[in-house]
Amino acid sequence: MGLELDGSMTLKAWGNGRNRFDAVAQAKKNAVRDVIFQSILEGKQDCAKKPLITEVNAEEKYEAYFNKFFADGGEFNNFISLKDERIGQKIDRDRKKARESVTYGLLLRVLRSELKSKLIADGIIKQ
To answer: Is 12 exposed, middle or buried (0-12, 13-18, 19+ CB in 10 A)?
Structure first.
């Protein structure tokens, strides 16, 4: 969606789960994971940011770290802001329902600069 002046990125993320709670949690994890490992290719031109980690196979190399980081209730939640989304109102408009699961899309702000500082402090990326 766009970059903010504070270094954060506003994204639309999708998550799939058994219920609304699981799908929203998965959407948050997907947003943070995309900022860390993938380029954001769609959206405004200023969103074409490189991933925070450009090292090949970094997710596998630091698997123990990222398993803990992305665990339910893990540290990834510290880098998500829902400022741009009134979750109760807007989440229902982007809902898809299948037989066994639901998919939700929501607007999230990923605190990219704080996330980068955390990864540098933990020795995952070099400065």
So the answer is: middle
| Per-residue CA distances from 120 to 30, 53, 114 (Å) | 21, 10, 10
Q: Tens digits of per-residue pLDDT, 67-115?
A: 998 998 888 888 888 765 554 445 444 556 666 788 888 888 888 889 8
Higher pLDDT, 28 or 89: 28
Residue that is written with structure tokens 């702000």 in the block: 109
H, E, C per residue of the chain = CEECCCCCEEEEEEEEECCHHHHHHHHHHHHHHHHHHCCCCCCCHHHCCCCCCCCCCHHHHCHHHHHHHCCCCCHHHHHEECCCCCHHHHHHHHEEECCCCEEEEEEEEECHHHHHHHHHHCCCCCC
**Cα–Cα distance measured from residue 4 to residue 93, given in angstroms and rounded to the nearest whole number:** 24
pLDDT confidence of residue 84? 55
